[in-house]
């Protein structure tokens, strides 16, 4: 187990180095640069842009820029944002609470509804409920989030006035938990419904696979109560593919959801990444990419380790 | 002074009726009421709080609330004192007759947000910081012509120039003064506590920034000038303009800032209840910007023909809903230097064709004109994703196809178009909106834009990316900045506008109109085309209850 973990972590480290090289090269080789943002709005001339470019080190050859960036990173210095001069880690850390709040609430909603719908769909296969759930999943997968979000706002905010049209909380008002929850309703409904489809589909197929296994039939024959059969015998075994899904979705928890954040004016990581990309804020972009890469590696590792917990047949050697 | 400022701040704007009533009566009939907050929606996020660092427009709006310059330009194009007690002129002895010395008397009794007194040493420090090679200042252009800046006493600043420079007043109107007692002692001039906790003399103090979401500014109760009447101003970042409009509809934001309401939402906005719409023209001119380094554009006949072949009226009518007024100049009619006698644009495709024929551009087998192996074919670029502009490009493409000219649309992300592609003149043509008057702080100076010594690919400085070179223009543009008197500058700039209209290095199309909405009840909101942000007088805003 220990050796397995070491090997996986070493592999992860190698992947990380690869990610930084490729990401750095792609970001810098893509046309455009961080100084373009000043062209349209200020009276800065070519001499000013050349001076700033030199001071940021952007006039250096790419390998030199990478070496400097990587050396600093090893020393724990992730660099500073070109846009707000703050350390990249502070900028990322600032976006995390809002991102996790939105994503966790949405994921929990999606998992709750998705797993329940999936189990019921599997138990009542080809029933009206099952057909409705399948169609619902298709619709939720194919509906454009931007449109859906705006529709939510039009109906429930503009027309009915039931929910706020955006923001994490009422601006300029003292903190209130109720106010926070109220603001969560819109974005979490949108995002939760978008995320619910894979959970219900995976659960349904996972359950169907195990429900017709011999040991389930045996349990039933032995007279084990139906709910216990479903939960203890079937669901536990149907969980394995769901763990993979959870592992894959873990980075999302911190990565945010661009479209929902945009529609509901929510300050999350998705928006942060796209804004930084627009400004070519290289230190921030690299920071987010590394951060996400680490999460992906850890998420997958965690899912693999959890397999052993839920499935005694799996051993690491 | 307070009263005069108040008058200036309210003239011609929203709430004028209330204000003038108050003033006419000689007593406060409807005096501004204190309290409340305003949420300004912005489609870009302000992040730079040191006003001397490289920044973008939305940052400037926050600077205007937190800081003061020596003076600020009002909507009528006049400088109004802020940290200075008076505006220096030749008449009041503030500017020497040779234009080489400026004596500035500062307002007394002004304090920084932390309570420290503001003095001439802060102005001196601000100038020194801009010129300090260790500091990444946004620009040193203009400041580098100051031979010395001295402070004979704590309330006086004396500038000596190496040669006369007329935009000096405009330059200082956009130079926000920073505190010496804070920034003078930091170890790293570029990254320090000032970036996250700025301290100014402005009407509002810095509250907090929730990154990616909003910035809260609190009223500065010790402000030396008018107001502030509001308790706070909140700048809320709303990246999508459709979402911004929706949030204005629901009443979540009180003001739609900077990009405001897009023209395609204008009709819907007019039907909204409980809101006031402001539709003043700006000094932003939409241009078709040529790269004269391309052989096809070197021929003046081509530029003329393209202007003749552009159906400007339909362009504005069909794509921009007829909202923005036609432009023939880089200056707006509100500028003192505006030339009202420029020939009016004429849409005449037949004349355009004839002009090209006589210049030797003959139609080839593919329907596109060519001369000496050079095809009359080029690309036009702008920021990708700007829907309205994309339609305008397609419209122009049709216009010009009819006269045998082939224009391809090549739009790219902002970071690409406005980087080296633009600054190193790698483009054929771009569609772009510039505020040449406002970028100079409210001055008609064009040296940087059309002077032949200011072509970035040739001299490494300036913004003359169109690579326009005309000796007469150079002479006039130099003369325009070296004469201090506005009376004498006026004919020079009128001539400059006539030459630009004759040579057409760029085609002016229209003046942008900022359609902005404010919630009814907000008093004194006033568009100021001379500045890049309309929060310029937030100190005078108040809610009528």
Automatic annotation (TrEMBL), chain A:
SUPFAM superfamilies: MetI-like (SSF161098). Pfam families: BPD_transp_1, BPD_transp_1_N. The chain crosses the membrane at residues 12-30, 102-123, 135-161, 181-199, 238-264, 284-310. Keywords: Cell membrane, Membrane, Transmembrane, Transmembrane helix, Transport. Its main location: membrane. It is found in: Cell membrane. Gene3D superfamilies: MetI-like. Residues 96-307 form the ABC transmembrane type-1 domain. It is a multi-pass membrane protein. InterPro entries: BPD_transp_1_N, MetI-like, MetI-like_sf. The keyword Transport applies. It comes from the Bacteria. One of its GO terms (cellular component) is plasma membrane. GO terms for biological process: transmembrane transport. Belongs to the binding-protein-dependent transport system permease family. This is ABC transporter permease. It comes from Candidatus Segetimicrobium genomatis. The lineage of its organism: Bacteria, Bacillati, Candidatus Sysuimicrobiota, Candidatus Sysuimicrobiia, Candidatus Sysuimicrobiales.
């Amino acid at each position: 187990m220990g050796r397995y973990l070491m090997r996986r972590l070493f592999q992860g480290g190698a992947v990380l180095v690869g990610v930084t090289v490729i990401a750095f090269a792609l970001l810098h080789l893509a046309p455009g640069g961080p100084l373009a943002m000043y062209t349209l709005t200020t009276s800065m001339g070519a001499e000013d842009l050349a001076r700033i470019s030199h001071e940021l080190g952007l006039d250096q050859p790419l390998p030199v820029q990478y070496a400097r960036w990587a050396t600093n990173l090893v020393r724990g210095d992730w660099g500073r944002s070109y846009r707000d001069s703050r350390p990249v880690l502070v900028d990322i850390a600032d976006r995390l609470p809002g991102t996790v709040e939105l994503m966790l609430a949405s994921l929990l909603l999606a998992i709750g509804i998705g797993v329940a719908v999936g189990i019921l769909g599997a138990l009542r296969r080809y029933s009206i409920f099952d057909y409705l759930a399948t169609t619902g999943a298709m619709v939720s997968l194919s509906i454009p989030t931007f449109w859906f979000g705006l529709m939510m706002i039009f109906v429930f905010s503009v027309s009915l006035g039931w929910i706020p049209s955006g923001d994490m909380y009422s601006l300029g008002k003292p903190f209130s938990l109720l106010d926070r929850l109220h603001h969560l309703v819109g974005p979490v409904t949108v995002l939760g419904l978008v995320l619910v489809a894979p959970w219900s589909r995976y659960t349904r197929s996972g359950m169907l696979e195990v429900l017709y296994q011999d040991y389930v039939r045996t349990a039933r024959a032995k007279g084990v109560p139906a709910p216990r059969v479903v939960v203890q015998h079937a669901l536990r075994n149907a969980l394995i593919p769901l763990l993979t899904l959870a592992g894959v979705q873990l980075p999302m928890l911190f990565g945010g959801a661009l479209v929902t954040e945009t529609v509901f004016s929510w300050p999350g990581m998705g928006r942060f990444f796209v804004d930084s990309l627009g400004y070519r804020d290289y230190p921030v972009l690299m920071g987010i990419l590394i951060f996400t890469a680490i999460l992906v590696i850890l998420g997958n590792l965690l899912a693999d380790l959890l397999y052993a917990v839920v499935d005694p047949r799996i051993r690491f050697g | 002074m307070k009263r005069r400022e108040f008058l200036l701040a309210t003239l011609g704007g929203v709430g004028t009726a209330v204000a003038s009533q108050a003033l006419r009566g000689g007593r406060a009939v409807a005096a501004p009421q204190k309290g409340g907050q305003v949420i300004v929606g912005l489609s870009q996020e302000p992040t730079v709080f040191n006003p001397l660092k490289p920044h973008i427009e939305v940052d400037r709006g926050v600077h205007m609330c937190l800081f003061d310059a020596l003076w600020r330009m009002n909507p009528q194009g006049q400088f109004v004192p802020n940290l200075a007690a008076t505006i220096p002129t030749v008449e009041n002895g503030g500017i020497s007759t040779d234009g080489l010395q400026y004596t500035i008397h500062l307002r007394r009794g002004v304090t920084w947000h932390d309570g420290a007194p503001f003095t001439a040493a802060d102005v001196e420090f601000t100038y020194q910081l801009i010129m300090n090679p260790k500091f990444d200042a946004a620009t040193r252009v203009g400041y580098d012509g100051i031979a010395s800046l001295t402070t004979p006493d704590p309330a006086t600043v004396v500038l000596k120039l190496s040669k006369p420079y007329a935009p000096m007043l405009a330059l200082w109107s956009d130079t926000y003064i920073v505190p010496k007692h804070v920034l003078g002692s930091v170890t790293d001039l570029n990254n320090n506590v000032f970036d996250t906790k700025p301290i100014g003399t402005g009407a509002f103090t810095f509250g907090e920034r929730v990154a990616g979401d909003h910035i809260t500014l609190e009223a500065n109760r010790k402000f030396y000038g008018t107001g502030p009447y509001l308790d706070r101003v909140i700048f809320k970042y709303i990246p999508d303009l459709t979402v911004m409009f929706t949030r204005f509809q629901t009443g979540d934001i009180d003001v739609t800032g900077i990009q405001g309401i897009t023209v395609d939402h204008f009709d819907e906005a007019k039907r909204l209840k409980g809101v006031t719409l402001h539709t003043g023209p700006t000094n932003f001119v939409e241009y078709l910007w040529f790269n004269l380094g391309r052989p096809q554009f070197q021929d003046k006949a081509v530029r003329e023909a393209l202007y003749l072949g552009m159906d400007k009226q339909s362009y504005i009518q069909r794509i921009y809903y007829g909202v923005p007024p036609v432009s023939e100049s880089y200056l707006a009619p509100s500028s003192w230097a505006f030339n009202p006698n420029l020939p009016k644009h004429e849409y005449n495709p037949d004349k355009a064709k004839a002009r090209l024929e006589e210049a030797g551009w003959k139609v080839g087998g593919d329907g596109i004109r060519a001369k000496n192996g050079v095809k009359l074919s080029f690309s036009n670029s702008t920021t990708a994703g700007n829907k309205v502009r994309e339609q305008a490009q397609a419209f122009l493409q049709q216009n010009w196809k009819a006269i045998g000219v082939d224009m391809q649309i090549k739009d790219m992300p902002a970071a690409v178009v406005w980087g080296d592609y633009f600054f190193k003149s790698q483009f054929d043509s771009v569609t772009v909106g510039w505020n040449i008057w406002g970028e100079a702080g409210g001055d008609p100076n064009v040296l940087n834009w059309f002077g032949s010594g200011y072509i970035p690919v040739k001299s490494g400085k300036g913004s003359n990316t169109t690579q326009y070179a005309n000796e007469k223009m150079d002479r006039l543009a130099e003369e325009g900045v070296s004469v201090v008197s506005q009376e004498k500058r006026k004919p020079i700039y009128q001539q400059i506008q006539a030459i630009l209209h004759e040579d057409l290095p760029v085609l002016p199309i229209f003046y942008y109109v900022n359609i902005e909405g404010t919630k009814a009840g907000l008093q004194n909101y006033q568009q100021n085309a001379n500045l890049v942000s309309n929060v310029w007088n937030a100190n005078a805003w108040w809610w009528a209850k």
